[in-house]
Amino acid sequence: MTDNLDSSLTTPTVYIIDDDPSIRAALDDLLASVGVKALSFASTRDFLAHPLSDAPACLVLDVRMPEQSGTDFHAQMASRGLHMPVIFMTGHGDIHMAVKAIKQGAWDFLTKPFIDQALIDAVQSALAADAQRKEQARSRLTLQQRWDSLNPGERDVFVRVVQGLLNKQIAAELNVKEVTVKVRRARVMQKMQAGSLAELVRQFDQLNAETGP
Amino acid sequence: MKPPFSALSSNTYRALALVGLCILMVLVFIADTVTNYAIAAAVFHTPLLLIAIRFLSARLVIALTGISMALTVVSVLLTRSGDYDVGLINTGISLVAIAVTAYLGLKLKSVQAAAHETREHLLRLSRLTTLGQLSTSIAHEVSQPLAAINSSAGACQRWLEASPPNIEKAQAAAQRIVYDAQRAKDVLDRVRSITRNEAPASSAFDLNLALTELLSLSSGEMQHHHIDLRLALQTDLPPVYADRVQIQQVMANLLLNAIEALSPPSSSHAACISIETSFLPGDKPQTGKVLFSIKDNGPGLSGTQLSELFNTFWTTKPTGLGLGLTISRTIIDANNGHIWATHQTDGGAAFHFTLPLAP
């Protein structure tokens, strides 16, 4: 791991946005009682004013609020660079609204009054999903950085190694000495931090799955 | 004491009107034929068409207009006496008059239909939106503190289950529960005070007249659904003492329920709603009551508990809120009356309410 954030910034956090102070206090405390860190806001504006850490997060969002409705805010999140899972809460939920919210990518939809365990379950699964999403993004970034550190000759070897060619064949194809291939191959394994050929192949697939090397 | 019974079937009425009009049209035709060319008896087709527009469907009116014009032309051909040129001009004028009358009449009819549709829509809308808004806002207001109570209770339980239990946090959560329970109670108190504020503005009024007023609003809807309305209103009904508008709302609600019970129409029998009013004498002169009953021959309330009907959120209708009868009972109770439902021997449903007499 290259990042050196302190632990308070890597703790998974639940952001609660509800205009009802009583709900905010209750949800804060409920999540605290199961050891989940929560921060609550009275409006989407307050939430946006708060700096966000890189830690896994999810949003518990009330649908009906005076300034901006939860569904409107949800629709704008991607354009603001927010990708955390959203759990909606509503006091007047109907099927139409729930279907629309889920279609737009909401993680869950809770109708007030909901059972405490329903919120806890939804929050925990959303945090796990966000952690996974962040982890994937991070490993993709690391891999890309490692790929970028390779020089063209090493890349040529890398591509042929994962194709299953022997050192001899690679040397012939690239018109270099076999010992040069061996040296470059060792450099590739070292720079990519791959312990085995199988791992190197997996990394290559992962790189290809995104943008391609 | 027995109320006079007036039966009124719209279908027989229409058939009679059609037969009468045909006879009159033949008479006009004969008059037009036997008189000389100069006498334009054919214009008498126009009042007949005006009557037809009042009672018959647009398609029948157009058919009758065609027949009238054909008869006019035929009678000119059959006529043998008088000034032929004048006759020709008169016939032309008659034909134009007939066509213009039919056109304007049909236009008027469609405008009336649109107006009726709007009124019907309003009648329904005012009931639905009031009930819908009321229930939605109550649900929302109560769901907030309930959600908070649920979450605080969950937190409280977990603080107590923790080892060691966090008593301080648990107490704070319990306090929030008490606070939110009070909030929920405040909402209910507000709802109750709304209904209390709407204390009936009681006055003495004629229940039959209030009913007739309401029926004039909904007659179109009943014609539309081909429902026969049978009225058995006692003529010398003593005035009741209640809130006139509230009672009209209850009657409208019961009437709309009956109309809904009859649509879609049954194939085996004609849809029929009968409304009765009568005086129920009490032990003493001041304990007498007026009884209102509305019966339909729809599917009825088979298998349902009559006592449950008036409970909140109980409904037989797929889109019903289950609030109409609850509110009706609240209104009738507040007006010192009594409302109840019975099964009909022919399978339909019947609703009745009584109201006190004016002092």
Your description of this structure?
The complex is a heterodimer of chains A (213) and B (359). Chain A has a five-stranded parallel beta sheet, sandwiched between helices. The longest helix of chain A has 33 residues, at 116-148. The two termini of chain A are 22 Å apart. The model of chain A is unreliable at 1-5 (pLDDT under 50). In chain A, helix 2 links the parallel strand 1 (13-17) and strand 2 (37-41). Chain A has ten helices and five strands. Helices cover 56% and strands 12% of the residues of chain A. Chain A has helices spanning 7-10, 21-33, 44-49, 70-77, 95-103, 116-148, 152-162, 167-174, 178-191, 197-210, and strands spanning 13-17, 37-41, 57-62, 86-90, 108-111. By secondary structure, chain A is α/β, with parallel strands linked by helices. With 359 residues, chain B is α+β, with helices and mostly antiparallel strands. Chain B has eight helices and seven strands; from the N terminus they run αααααβαββαββαββ. In chain B, strands 2-4-5-7-6 form a five-stranded mixed beta sheet. A two-stranded antiparallel sheet of chain B has the order 1-3. In chain B, strand 6 (338-343) and strand 7 (349-356) form a beta hairpin. In chain B, helix 4 (84-161) runs antiparallel to helix 5 (167-197), helix 4 (84-161) crosses helix 6 and helix 7 runs antiparallel to helix 8 (324-334). The two termini of chain B are 21 Å apart. The interface between A and B is medium-sized, with 24 and 27 residues.
